[in-house]
């Protein structure tokens, strides 16, 4: 249920109104970000989201939300999880289909972490085709595995906001605490060299064919993700302007 607008501060109303006016002139975009863990997708997606007024669809979060909301698809997903089964591709695509109905997805979306396989990409394309739309651009964050190890193992996160830091590249003002709230930072359990190696093997085996699949549709742009974030941002902007 929408909040009573009388109780919303004028400043918030005005800023939302200005945001919507700005968004109305933006082109619609349906994007997929592909890249191994630590390639910078997480840094770039909020920038792209704000610039183009898109919604960010992370399939893991969406599945958890659908389960919590007890939507028909969420109930099915919960059944599969409780049996220790993988949630089917059809179910995940169904949850994406539901999610893009939201007003925040009106101008399009960024998909991150999906599709991971060619079969998933095909099912996603079929669903979008039924809606009379398609993927406009796939940004492939291309980076050498050796660089990723240094990036990943130095990464620290503020759990409630998702702000990320790095001991070498983007340290917090005070070691171990978030710049904004002063709350402690954590390191994800999978941000270790051993876990990274197994994730990279899976990424190269499963997801690189997805890039080839979309390359045949001429929608892939390779982004040199080893560059500093500002330069990567510029490359992303250039790719999305074309």
From TrEMBL:
UniProt organism field: Spinacia oleracea (Spinach)
Enzyme Commission number(s) from the entry: 2.7.4.3
Oligomeric and partner information: Monomer.
GO cellular component terms listed in the entry, alphabetical order: cytoplasm; mitochondrion
UniProt-recorded name of the protein: adenylate kinase
Enzyme class: transferase
A Pfam family this chain is assigned to: ADK_lid
Record-annotated Adenylate kinase active site lid domain positions: 155-190
Annotated PROSITE patterns: ADENYLATE_KINASE (PS00113)
